[in-house]
Every structure is written in C-alpha cells, then in structure tokens.
Design goal:
Keywords: Membrane, Transmembrane, Transmembrane helix. This is DUF4293 family protein. The chain crosses the membrane at residues 7-31, 51-71, 83-102, 114-135. There is one protein chain. The chain is an all-alpha fold. It is 82% helix and 0% strand.
C-alpha cells in the first residue's frame, strides 16, 4: 500500500510540475516572439512540443537528483520542512522574473546572453526541483489519516 501511495504522490507531483513548466516555457516563448509569420508558425506548432520535451527531460533529471529525498532518513528531514521546498519554488520564480527583467533592460539582450541564460536556467531547474519534491506536511497527512479511520468504522 505504501508503494502505491508513493507512486501516486510522484505522479501527482510530476503532473503539477509538468503543467507549470510547460506554462513557464510557453510564456517565455511568447515573450521572445518577434512578430513574423514564420516565427508565429514556430510559436504555435513547434514551441509546445519543445516545451513538453524540455519539461519531461527536466522532470526526469530532477527525479534522479532528488532520489535521496525519497529515502527514509533524509526524506523524513525533507518532509518536515515543506516551507523549504515552497521557498525554493518562490526563489525559482524570482530568478525567472529577474532574467526577464535583465532581458528587457537592453533592447539587444535575449535569452542567449550568458547572464540572462544563467538566471533563467537556474530559476527553471530550481522551480522544477522544488515543485517536484514538495510533500504534504506530516500534520496534514496525520489529520487525513485520522479522518479516514474515524469515518470508516
């Protein structure tokens, strides 16, 4: 039963992370749109596919890197600090916003400039890792467990 719970939790976390990352990617692609017809076709046809592939690759990498968080000893420590993961997600969003600010500071700056690319990719991976490894607090799980056993009798 515990394995089913872990797989269900991982699939929900991965689904939420995928939707958020795809939305962020499409927003960044829309902000990088230059206004020509071929660029519009690329934006509509190819960017969603590239966003989905990049999101899946990022999620796979973050699952591999975050495997120790799903193990017993370190996992307990991480699960007790839910605000740490939420703070990481907020920091990732802040880094992405800062990269947009730096990109908009000069007319020639794009996402290929090294400082902007470093901020955007750091924010991307921090957001993905933090969202993928946010666990419900133990107090919430305990309350849900108590409610389930109380009403199942």
């Amino acid at each position: 039963m515990k394995i089913v719970y872990q797989l269900l939790l991982l699939s929900v976390q991965a689904g939420i992370t995928f939707v958020v990352l795809l939305g962020v990617y499409l927003l960044l692609a829309l902000l990088d749109y230059r206004g020509s017809f071929p660029a519009f076709i690329g934006l509509v046809a190819f960017q969603p596919l590239m966003g989905a592939l990049l999101s899946l690759a990022t999620i796979s990498l973050c699952v591999l890197v975050g495997l120790p968080l799903r193990l017993a000893a370190f996992g307990r420590w991480w699960r007790q600090r839910t605000l740490l993961a939420l703070g990481g997600a907020a920091a990732g969003v802040a880094l992405l916003g800062l990269s947009l600010f730096l990109r908009g500071a000069t007319a020639s700056a794009g996402f290929t400039e090294p400082s902007v690319l470093a901020l955007a990719s750091s924010g991307w991976f921090l957001l993905a890792f933090s969202l993928l490894h946010v666990f419900p607090p133990d107090t919430l799980l305990h309350r849900v467990g108590l409610l389930r056993t109380q009403y199942s009798q």
